[in-house]
Amino acid sequence: MNPARALDEEGRRIRTRSTPRGLPLTEVGFGAAQLGNLNRETTDEASTAAVDAAWDAGVRYFDTAPHYGIGLSERRLGAALAGRPRDDFVLSTKMGRALVPTPDRAAAGELDDHDFVTPATHRREWDFSRDGIRRSLEQSLDRLGLDRVDIAYLHDPDDHWEAASTTGIAALVELRDEGVVRAIGAGMNQSAMLTEFVRRCDVDIVMVAGRYTLLDRSAADDLLPMAEARGVAVVAAAVYNSGLLSRAEVTSDARYDYDTAPPEVIQRARAMAAVCAEYGATLPDAAVQFPLRHPAVTSVVVGTRTREQVASSVARYSAPIPEELWASLEGA
């Protein structure tokens, strides 16, 4: 049986997997970066509609961060989830980028300079200190309107290994021991440093973006075997590699890893799309389902802006894919 099409015990289309340490995540998660006006504006109404559609489809894992729209994503996600039974969903947010007020920039009408179309009310400042981590969580809870988050990730500490792996992780361990958060880890666009977090630190879960996809499987060389050996869950994000794998037909102007896709990468993606078509599937179907085939992967988080994107993601997750397709994709 295709695990992506099986129903859970309550008859929902989206199954739940428990992390090795017992935290239940739906196999499809709602990535809320776009609720922070990533690249273009989104309305409060559209954001709420997207969350409502995800909930109705059975999604119960939601991921956000202060970085996304300098708090806007957290505020919108919290408002959209308000009134839902708190024990019925899992929410993750991230720490390490403190939001420092910049009233002068906001008064001058400046916009945020990190690809989010929002007023520049704050700037981001790296802070992996104990006080910085605790203050960040406090502020996130205030924006979310919640009394707790379930997962706390250190956010993109690529250039801050020493601070993140010592005071940063120590602060998260303290919060976990206090029962303020249920699981801790890091979220990054690389697998090498995440592997070191799993190897050296007492983490429960990590989020790897773009490094375990149909086109980039580098996390299979280091992170996934280490996580499986240490009993650490992996959440796979950015499974479309910035859009290249998000359409059945790969266009010549497709983007890959936040930039224009090189011709050879487009060629590989088109070859994979052709294989998928032979088996009655699409490239995005395979892109969503592929990471879940690895035993270390607990959930796939898909960036979402609208209710239509929710429907598309759930359809791709649920699409029937014959086992033979995966072997054929290896040849492509």
Order of helices and strands: EEEHEHEEHEHEHEHEHEEEHHEHH
CATH class: Alpha Beta
Number of distinct beta strands? 14
Could you give the distance between the termini? 24 Å
The number of helical elements comes to 11
CATH architecture assignment: Alpha-Beta Barrel
Over the alpha carbons, how many angstroms does the gyration radius reach?
19 Å
Question: What is the helix content?
Answer: 25-40%
Average pLDDT taken over every residue? 95
What does this structure look like?
There is one protein chain. The chain is of the alpha/beta class and 332 residues long. It has a single domain, classed as TIM Barrel (Alpha-Beta Barrel). The chain is 37% helix and 18% strand. The chain is built from 11 helices and 14 strands. An 8-stranded parallel β-barrel has the order 3-4-5-8-9-10-11-14, surrounded by 5 helices. Strands 1-2 form a two-stranded antiparallel sheet. α7 links the parallel β10 and β11. α9 packs across α10. The radius of gyration is 19 Å and the shape is globular. This is Aldo/keto reductase.
What's this, in brief?
By secondary structure, the protein is of the alpha/beta class.
Search tags:
two-stranded antiparallel ribbon; globular; FDH-like; 37% helix; TIM Barrel; disordered N terminus; alpha/beta; 11 helices; 332 residues
Chart the SSEs and their pairings.
Elements: E1 16-18, E2 24-26, E3 28-31, H1 44-57, E4 61-63, H2 72-81, E5 90-95, E6 97-101, H3 103-107, E7 122-126, H4 130-144, E8 151-155, H5 161-177, E9 183-188, H6 192-200, E10 205-209, H7 223-230, E11 233-237, E12 255-256, E13 259-260, H8 263-278, H9 283-289, E14 297-303, H10 307-318, H11 323-331
Parallel strand pairs: 3-4, 3-14, 4-5, 5-8, 8-9, 9-10, 10-11, 11-14
Antiparallel strand pairs: 1-2, 6-7, 12-13
Helix pairs in contact: 1-2, 1-10, 4-5, 6-7, 9-10
Biased composition (Basic and acidic residues): 1-13
Region (Disordered): 1-23
Pfam family, one: Aldo_ket_red
